[in-house]
Every structure is written in C-alpha cells, then in structure tokens.
Design a protein that fits this description.
single chain; alpha+beta; Uridine Diphospho-n-acetylenolpyruvylglucosamine Reductase, domain 2; Uridine Diphospho-n-acetylenolpyruvylglucosamine Reductase, domain 3; Uridine Diphospho-n-acetylenolpyruvylglucosamine Reductase, domain 1; 3 domains; five-stranded antiparallel sheet
Length: about 325
C-alpha cells in the first residue's frame, strides 16, 4: 500500500524530520514487482531505505521511498569449513550478528553493534576491528529495477573497496539488495590484534576468548565511545578514514609523530579521520543543534532539533578545516539526500 506525505523521522538514525511525498514497504521481489506495476520509477525520484543508519536527509523528498523489509535467516548449506547462511536484507544487522553467534557460527563477531540493516552491509562493505564484510561474503541477490529480474552477485561482481562497492558507484540506483549470503566459520579465526579488543579482554581476565567474548568486548568498546542513536541522533562514523600517499604521510608525521596510521597498500597509509578532526579542534564542539561527539570526533550528532542542512553545513566546516590544517581531504561516509 502506498502512503502519502509520510514523515521519515523514525526511519533515519539522525532523527531528521522530513517528509516523503509517497512511502511504500516491500518484503519480497514479488511485492516489488507489484509496486512497479503502479509506480513508474523512470518518471519520478525514488529512495531505497533500509535501516536509515547511513543517510543524511537534507530536505523533503519529492518522490517515493521504498522501505526494504525483506526478512528471514536461513542456514542453506554446510561445508567442511563453513556454515552458509542467507539473511533477508531487511534484518537488523546487530540482531543478525547476535543470532549467528547464538548458533555458534563464527566470523562476524568483530562487527557487532554496527547500526543498520543486513542489506547495507555489502553496499558499504562495512568493517571494524580488522574485519570487513568482504571477508565473510559469499553472494547476494538483488532486484534489477529496470528489468524486474533478480540477479545474483558474487564477491568479484560486487567490486568491494574501502567502505564501498559497485552498488555505490557504477550500479548506484539500479538495484535493490534483497538478501545476502555469508560463509561463516565452523572453526573460529579470532581477530583480537586490535589493541582495544586485546585490552578489553585482558581487563575482563579472558585469555582464551570465545566468539561471544570477542563480540562482548567489541560491544563494550563501541558503547563506551559511540552514542546510542535512540538517545542522540547520529549515523555512526560520518567520515571515511583517508588514504594518502606515503610521501604525504611522512610530511604530516614529521610535524605530528603521534598520528595513528595503518598500512593501505603499496605506497599508501591510512590515517585516522577521528584524530585529524580532534586535532582540528572539533571534538565536542557544538554549533547550534549539532556537533562532533564529546567522546568520538568521528561521530557527528544531532542534539535534538538539527536540520539535515545544518548538519551538512557543519560537516563542510570540518572538511575545510582539516584540509587547511593537514592538507588531507576527508570524504563523507554517509549518503546525502
């Protein structure tokens, strides 16, 4: 059923109160096909909405919002090494991770408490603490809007990159992800080398961690520094960690030897955007109804009444100041609508 003049405030984690001209939910490819019989997407704007956790709405949407509510989690195959698990794109990501851990299916524990839905995970190639979706990804099914057909994509076809995929570039707006299938591990391959996880496990007196121990450590770390969107509107990390040539890194580190950095392929280093933003003076800095979080300078928050335009303008100041101070161009990670 198509609804008219619907507020999107409860459908985005920033809590921005804008309206959509039209709004419709779907829970299957068949439901989408029925919707497209009465809606001409070539003739109007459309927005595919999942968990609303990686989006900044800057104005009313004068088109139709299609809300992805494809649900279901299924063990579809077992191999000697893997549990092959398929999840509907509309499932909440963290709840899906908790379900896999409850079943003893390993591989996603480092990705606990990331906001959003399963369908966004390959689109963004989400990652945390040394693990990315591409590491456990098997395939996905996606609805082709022009033909109405369901196509399957393997990892190569998704063209995964750092927080991106083919669905954010060449095929942007052409497909709706319906389900994602993962190769989860029968024998855990724990990634605890990140200092924060290692320190948290040591603080808990855990020397031989299980997948749930690692997940719990990640949850405690994230809760200690990231605000709950239900209490303080935000979309998690607002900016990507920049990758710069090694020559530029050496110039910056000469003046700032304490700058956090990580390998990023031959001839490049990845820098911590949060560190750059904090050193630029934005950590905890509030302007009007928005600002960077007091505990994590990578998270832009809505203190209650901010508009999307206000948040976007603030993020522009961050970009300009970091560029002026360090010569580094940050990139917004959230989708701007």
């Amino acid at each position: 059923m198509i609804e008219n003049q619907v507020s999107l405030k409860e459908y985005n984690t920033f809590g921005i109160d804008v309206q959509a001209d039209s709004f419709c939910r779907f829970d299957s490819a068949e439901a989408l096909q029925e919707i497209l019989k009465s809606v001409d997407l070539k003739a109007q704007k459309y927005l595919i909405l999942g968990g609303g956790s990686n989006i900044l709405l800057t104005r009313d949407f004068d088109g139709i919002v299609l809300k992805n509510e494809v649900m279901g989690i299924h063990l579809i195959e077992e191999t000697d090494e893997h549990y092959v698990v398929e999840s509907g794109a509309g499932e909440n990501w963290h709840q899906f991770v908790m379900h896999t851990l409850d079943q003893g299916w390993a591989g996603l524990e480092n990705l606990s408490l990331i906001p959003g839905n399963v369908g966004a995970s390959p689109m963004q190639n989400i990652g945390a603490y040394g693990v990315e979706i591409k590491d456990r990804f098997r395939s996905l099914k996606a609805f082709h809007l022009e033909s109405g057909e369901v196509h399957e994509f393997d990892a190569a076809a998704c063209e995964f990159g750092y927080r991106e995929s083919v669905f954010k570039r060449r095929l942007k707006g052409q497909y709706i992800i319906l389900s994602v299938t993962f190769n989860l591990l029968k024998k855990p391959d724990l990634k605890t080398e990140y200092g924060a996880i290692k320190g948290e496990l040591e603080a808990q007196g855990i020397s031989n961690p299980t997948i749930k121990d690692v997940s719990n450590a990640v949850i405690r770390i994230r809760q200690s520094k990231l605000p709950d969107p239900a209490e303080l509107g935000n979309a998690g990390s607002f900016f990507k960690n920049p990758v710069v040539p090694i020559e530029q890194f050496e110039q910056i580190s000469a003046d700032h030897p304490d700058i956090p950095n990580y390998p990023a392929g031959e001839g490049h280093r990845k820098l911590a955007a949060g560190w750059l933003i904090e050193k630029a003076g934005f950590k905890g800095l509030r302007e009007g109804h928005c600002g960077m979080h007091t505990k994590q300078a990578l998270v832009l928050v809505n203190y209650g009444d901010a508009t999307g335009e206000e948040i976007y303008a603030y993020s522009g100041k961050v970009l300009e100041t970091v560029k002026a101070k360090f010569g580094v161009e940050l990139e917004r990670e959230v989708n701007i609508v």
